[in-house]
Amino acid sequence: MEMKNMHRRDFLKLAGACSLLAQGGIAMAASESEPQRALIAAAWRGPNPTDTYYAGVLVADWARKKLDIRHATPLPTRPHGLLPEEDGSLLVTGVRPGTWLMRIDPEGKPVRQLDIEPSANVLLNGHAIVGKAGDLVFTTETDFASGRGKIGVRDRITLKKIDEWDTGGMEPHQLLLDAEGNLMVANGGIPRNRADKKFDLARMDSSLVRLDARNGKLLRQWTVDDSRLSLRHIAWSTAPNGERRLGIAMQAEHGEAAQRSRAPLLAVLEEDQLIVPTRANDGFGYGGDIAAAYNGGFVVSSNQAGLAQLWHPGAPDKLTPVVQLEEAYAMAEWNGPQPGGGVLVSTALGLVRWHPSAKPVFLAWPKPMALDNHWALIGEA
């Protein structure tokens, strides 16, 4: 796939976003020297839906303007969440309802795989996080016997479950740690069966919760006013003054397309209050992924609209388009030159790098491939 397939007017929107930020009163400093390359944990398949899925590491070489595959490991089924670990390994979770976890070493060799019987009562929901002490892995799960959301508490080395906690809701999706090491969990709230089909959406019960990472005790729970908004993916963003916000990408589950097209995409937890700062959206009501961005803000993607939009606390009622390309989806924070705050966005054609003060960059995929929903920055040099 060559860059000529990307409309010039779309690429220019990447550069034009910087001027829009300035118009919104968001100051930017001049850029400094940029890192030469980035290592990105990613999952993908070939161009056909029946092609094998892989997880591995992509190398984005900014100087050569080229994207390469460092290593690729075939997977049992479609994956979802990818978690880079401190030793350079990659923990991959099977897509919901998930039946496997796989650890891949820094050379691309699978070193551990945990399989779960598809008939088991409790199956994986697609995301994992390592605990603050480094000895545990927490996974989001669903108990199909009760319909309740669960956190699987697992030994980090063996990945075997040693405990199980209730999430205070149903269908937990992504989870992160807060500053104290407690769990922040987005309960998606959508009733689903074993075939992953949604049902009885009138019972939706989405929430954000904080759980004590020592024992699973529910410490706090937040909801938004509209019960048909599913809180799904989350990211922390820190402003220069140290203020920390949690952004939550939401997906609308209203029965009418017109309602979904007007639904907000973003909720923000700030000063312990969960707010919906803007009704601006993508025309579909589908927040696919989220990443921290410039000065305490966030970028939310929507693959249905082919759009990634910046929210910033300096202009809280706006979403500013920063990438507008087909299948804009997976997001990763990319600090880049000062003042930082860039993002890496996967699209149908390749990687797009956006930054508030550096030139936008497009790198075509190294071969025909379809990226999955999420990726993560491992490091840069």
From TrEMBL:
Signal peptide span: 1-29
Record keyword Signal present: yes
UniProt entry tagged with the keyword Signal: yes
Keywords per UniProt: Signal
Name of the protein in question: Twin-arginine translocation pathway signal
